[in-house]
TrEMBL record:
The lineage of its organism: Archaea, Thermoproteota, Thermoprotei, Thermofilales, Thermofilaceae. It comes from the Archaea. This is GNAT family N-acetyltransferase. Keywords: Transferase. GO terms for molecular function: acyltransferase activity, transferring groups other than amino-acyl groups.
Length: 201
């Protein structure tokens, strides 16, 4: 289900300092989330939506499971690339310097779902918490052992995730701001063999 993904995510992230630095004007940020929505429609990404009274209250997008073999480039991609300009390209290039260490840390986690964005149109009503539980269920059913995400160290959401069992793994820098890569174990930490016997007391 994709719902009104771009609209909800734009509402939640239009003031995000990193996106503003990377993409500049609000129209470019909305285009970015339009591309994300199109990728979710094609199955490249997975979208989850929480509806209340028939209206979307919260939405999330994550990377989980297999990818489709054929992907059509989203319509907004050309405009999004134009939005990046030199400033955005330099920001992305700087982030690549962190990529090797990031990849090493990430590779130790095994099968993982990565939560890219989650936002609510009505913060403080528990919609985000409910959607996060649904995300964990989806990831568990897909065979993932962990759910990972990145959060700005200055974002109050850091405490939200910590209270829900996410622990920090490493810090990265993007667009001049520090982010924490956080993870939550949702599956059995050790692989089970067919001959394993369950302990009884």
């Amino acid at each position: 289900m994709v719902c009104k993904l771009a609209r909800v995510l734009y509402a939640g992230f239009k003031e995000d300092p990193s996106l503003r630095k990377l993409l500049g004007e609000p129209g470019c940020i909305y285009t970015f989330f339009g591309v994300i929505e199109e990728l979710a429609r094609q199955g490249v990404l997975t979208a989850l939506c929480l509806k209340v009274g028939g209206a979307t209250a919260s939405a999330a997008v994550l990377s989980v499971g297999a990818r489709p073999r054929r992907v059509v480039l989203p319509r907004g991609l050309t405009r999004l690339l134009a939005c990046l300009r030199l400033r955005g390209l330099l920001t992305l290039a700087a982030w690549l310097a962190w990529a090797p260490g990031y990849a090493r840390t990430y590779s130790k986690l095994g099968e993982t779902c990565h939560l890219l964005f989650i936002a609510s149109l009505a913060p403080g009503r528990g919609y985000g918490s409910k959607l996060l539980r649904e995300i964990e269920k989806l990831c568990r059913s897909a065979g993932a052992r962990t759910v990972t995400l990145e959060v700005d160290t200055g974002n109050p959401a850091l405490l939200f995730y910590a209270k829900r069992g996410f622990t920090p793994l490493m810090a990265t820098v993007f667009a001049g701001r520090y982010y924490l890569l956080m993870a939550k174990l949702i599956g059995d930490p050790r692989p089970r063999c067919s001959g394993d016997e369950e302990e009884t007391s």
